[in-house]
Amino acid sequence: MAPTEAFAPAKINLTLHVTGQRADGYHLLESLVVFADVGDVVRVTPADEMSLCVTGPMASGVPEDARNFCWRAAQAFGAPVAITLDKRLPAAAGIGGGSSDAAAVLRAMAAAFDRPFDGDALALGADVPVCLLARAARMSGIGEAVEPLTLPVLHAVLVNPRVEVPTPVVFRGLASKQNPPMAALPAGGELVRWLGDQRNDLEAPALAAAPVIGTVLAALTRAGAGLARMSGSGATCFGLFADRTAAEAAAHRLQQAQPDWWVTAARLA
User: Pick from 70, 74, 213, 243: CA 20 to 30 A from residue 122's CA?
Assistant: First the structure.
């Protein structure tokens, strides 16, 4: 049987407001999420037993067993498959790579077995429900509330300085866990201006843990970004540009200036 393929796009948190913490320790969030036209690719083939092979430029160090989100997603779906993960996004980077991979496995298996996933996506990770949607959305609660949105296409440069920032460290560094929620989305075409008035509450503690994030944000601003911000818990940052041509030119300059960084132009929607 031919493998069934699914794209696992990078998830970008344009905003991320930490609005509280539940008694069980889970943080309450509000986030405006979009997805890029760059990402990983998963392929699944029905098999007698589970297997996972990781290939691609970012494959090094990615587990090929039950520690991998792809494996866990296939187990949750309830059928053995042979999985190939073409890993093109940096891991532990604040762009939902593992969660997007898991969601792509669920979509591919739903197509391969001709039945929907009827399990609890949230149990696989807070970002998996929004990654299953894989389009612009407002995410809230602990990740279970996902409201699809129609937003204008944004052109961006994504930059990761090849530094991993552990999410628990970032959350522990939060000065306050009771912060104002996002403002209402603008009705007109003022999205970028509106974004400038919003926040990523995890940016400050991530900067304290990995000061190179500040270097990345400054580099994006110098490259002409109208807005530069960290995504998720870091360390990937995004810069928004007027159009694809400007984003590609900025990405090229940044790649030449910082050859050790992961840099790519992307379309966000």
Answer: 213
Fold assignment, 4-147? Ribosomal Protein S5; domain 2 (3.30.230)
Q: Which CATH number fits domain 151-268: 3.30.565.10, 3.40.190.10, 3.30.70.890, 3.90.1170.50?
A: 3.30.70.890
- Residue 11: active-site member: yes
Q: Which two tokens stand for residue 184?
A: 């209402």
Residue among 89, 167, 77 at smallest CA distance from 121: 77
| Residues ≥6 apart with Cβ < 8 Å to 184 | none
Using one digit for the tens of pLDDT, what is the confidence trace for 132-189?
999 999 999 999 999 999 999 999 999 999 999 999 999 999 999 999 999 999 877 6
Of the candidates 11, 40, 101, 201, the residue annotated as catalytic is 11
Name the catalytic one among 40, 86, 101, 127: 127
